[in-house]
Amino acid sequence: MPGQNHSLGEFEELVLLIVAAHHNEAYGVLILENLEEKLQKKVNISAVHVALKRLEDKGFVRSRFGGITHDRGGRRKKLYSITALGKKVLDKQYALRTSLYQQIPKISFG
Amino acid sequence: MKKSPPKRALQFLRWFCREDYVEEIEGDLTEIFEKQYEVSPRAARLRFALNVIRYFRPAFMKSFKFFNPFAMGVLLRHNLILSLRSFMRYRMSFFINLCSLSVGLACALLIYLWVGDELSVDKFHEKDRNLYQVMYNQELANGIVTNGKTPGLLAAELAAEFPEIEYATTATWVEPRTLSVRDDYAIKAGGRYVSKDFFNTFTHPLLEGDKDHVIDDVSSIVLSESLCMRLFNTTTDVIGKQVVLDHEAPYQVTGIFKDVPPNSSWKFDFVMAYERFEKENDWARDWNSVGPYTYIVTREGVDIDLLNKKIVDFATPHRKEGKEISLFLARYSDNYLYGHYENGRATGGRIDYVILFSIIAVFILVIACINFMNLSTARATRRLKEIGVKKTLGASRKALAFQYLTEAILVSFFSLLVAVALVWALLPSFNVLTGKDMSLRFDPSAVLAVLGVTLLTGIFAGSYPALYLSGFNPVAVLKGKLRISVGEALARKGLVVFQFAISVVLIASVLIVFRQTQYVQNRNIGYDRDNLIFFLKEGRALTNPEALITEMKKIPGVINAAGLGHNLLAHTMGTEDVHWEGKMPGDEILFEYMFADYGMIETLGLEMKEGRAFSRDFVGDTTAVIFNETAIEYMGLSDPVGRIIMESGQPLQIIGVVKDFNFTSLHDGVKPLFVKLWPRYAWNIVARIDGSRQRETLRAIEDLYKSFNPGFVMDYKFLDQEYQALYAAEQRVSTLSRYFAGIAILISSMGLFGVASFTAERRMKEIGIRKILGSTSWGIVVLLTSDFTKMVLVAVAIALPVSYIISDRWLDSFAYRIKLEWWYFAVAGVAALLIAWFTVGLQTVKAAAVSMTRCLRMNE
Hints:
The complex is a heterodimer.
Chain A: H1 10-21, H2 28-39, H3 45-58, E1 61-65, E2 78-82, H4 84-102
Helix pairs in contact in A: 1-3, 2-3
Chain B: H1 7-16, H2 19-39, H3 41-54, H4 69-89, H5 91-120, E1 131-140, E2 143-147, H6 154-161, E3 165-171, E4 175-182, E5 185-194, H7 198-201, E6 206-208, E7 220-224, H8 225-232, E8 242-245, E9 249-257, E10 270-273, H9 274-280, E11 293-298, H10 304-311, E12 326-331, E13 341-342, E14 345-346, H11 351-378, H12 384-392, H13 397-434, H14 444-470, H15 474-478, H16 486-522, E15 532-536, H17 539-543, H18 545-554, E16 558-565, E17 574-575, E18 578-579, E19 591-596, H19 600-604, E20 608-611, E21 624-628, H20 629-635, E22 644-647, E23 650-658, E24 673-677, E25 684-689, H21 694-708, E26 717-718, H22 719-726, H23 728-762, H24 764-772, H25 777-811, H26 822-849, H27 852-857
Helix pairs in contact in B: 1-3, 2-3, 4-5, 4-13, 5-11, 5-13, 5-23, 11-14, 11-16, 11-23, 13-14, 16-23, 16-25, 16-26, 23-26, 25-26
């Protein structure tokens, strides 16, 4: 899709990674908890939602409603899964980072 | 306790959040809340609310397009059809609504026209924003006196001294003069002397002539278009032609101005050069005398407060003998509406009546709206099924409310049509009543205002029924179990009470205004003003009044005649330059100045308290003076006759004291008066004629005048008529308030009629049962009437103190006022009650007379 925005912010990348890791099971609160656990800091739920909406707009994730739950005030979960495009972007990003990383000369910080 | 997130926050989220996001966000937030709730419920609630606020940003908000124009169109058409159908079905209430709203709107329209006309007076001058009249305050022993007449030299001096002033002009009052272009043709018209720049200061467009130089010459005269037509039958090529004033002074026409519009407070047909006036009147060059008016136009952007401070003491140094005066600027166009000054402060004026009638207009409209509210809500039971069915089928409350609003607005627009027709038909008589010349004009701003008021009226009238009817519970309604709560019944009764309270206030006011105007006009003012005529001395009457007066007295119907220099209707002239024995500094007071000829006191029929009147039998009466009782009392002179006082440096002997009589409007009390014998300055001739031979006497006087003073038109006036004209404003208020009160009562009773007829109808079954059980028709009437009687009584109880306060304040503006008697209010209350009984009675008697079987057989 030429012309489409394929950029990926740092926070968005983290969210996308978590969505990918919990394929078909990822939803707002789960992503939030995972992030907080890995990053070891407080994250706001609205930030997660903003990132998710942007990812969905860019076509990196897709969403569907889960079944009715008993907690959550009876509200359905919105479950996210990564798209092929999302996966490709992640791969590219990973390849870029790895190749750059490998160029680092072996310096010892003794 | 159930763990649930804070309600308010949740409602807020649901209100603003996009529909496709709200479930996910709400769910996630709730999940977080539930987890935190285990730890700390308080923190969880706080956190929830804060989180909701974080979502309040464009990305998560609903779009603003919440209605679609096509659906609106369909809805509107549907509502219109429904409204029309309901009008057809409930013809009676539609008719009552239409009548009361259209009468109400017509009243409001008429008042709107009148108010607009009042507000437009003197606003037509292009420089209106910067046009000021120079006035002054003078501190005297009995308070500060405000005067609009100024020293004649003021305008030129001010213009020379202050660069802030763009134009300054002096102008005199308007005087009737005799104009002729041929010997055999003379007409009378009002003219004034004005100085250079008059046409720059005021906007009276010149058809001929240059506004900078049109009155440069002392013999120039500028005519109005219509006067020019009357004199020359044309307005072309009249420049340079001669017009003779009073058959002696030739003037050259130097210009023609457009007729002064009706909304100008000064009305005049021609102007002459002020320079000439100055030449003919020595006093006009004296700073101690005041007389002409001074008008200025300030330059754009001048701070008027600053200029006021600069000019305040400007005139005092010039006045060697006169007391100090403080000049101030008053907006020229404000003078008409805010012309009353009391103790140096502006205290309103005609604006009071403008406000009064605007309030009446609003009240009449409100009364009409209340009729609509009462009838629609009272008839709600009839429309219950419709509402129930609609609601079950999914009509939202908003849509229903909208429907009732459409209905109300539609009625008000129908009423507007009727109202415009009514106004169109009534306007000529209204013009006569108000002494104006108004017409229905269709300029955009007026049309917009009228449409706006109509729309507002519709919305206001429809608001309560719309909210009330659309709020019914569909289940209860369809089961036919509508309970009218105490509150609703109370609200409806409250509205009726309000209507009648206003009506009672109006009835009481009408009574009091009427009594007061009667009192003022019939009050003994100290002399008999019936059969007194007066006219201006002109021509030979001016040069040789003695001869005319002698001849007049020979006419059988003329009882007496004399010269008089005062108009007996208002403050004419005054002096504070009077010194007497025992006068302390600061005792200065304004004495009303009256010039008299021999026989003046006898002709007016004034009574002497002490001493004698002027008489030819005594030589040296030219240095004599007569005071009135008030003046003597103020000066504190005991045994005044024979004492010498000083006036303007001249010693005068007091020869008599005249009993107090009224020589100004009865808004003011009797002021100190100073009468001096000075036939030359007695510019009027007054004559008392025999009332039983009025017509032939007047004809004889006119014949005499024609032969005595050929070429002049005698323009006599009756003092009593002029005196009544003095109270024209009060007269008009009296008449208008009578009409408007009548209309308010009419509209209120129309509403009451509707509600009463409805109540009687609804209680039909009850009436039937009561009759079967032996109740008399009279009993039924009492039963149905007692409710309304209570309401009207409550209204009376509320209205009486209110009307007492209002009328007491109005009466305070008169120096001579009637006492407020209890029976004025009793009459007002009883009248309201009788009207209510009559209206309700029409219905209840009909209801009570109905056969009982019919009552019971009726379904529903």
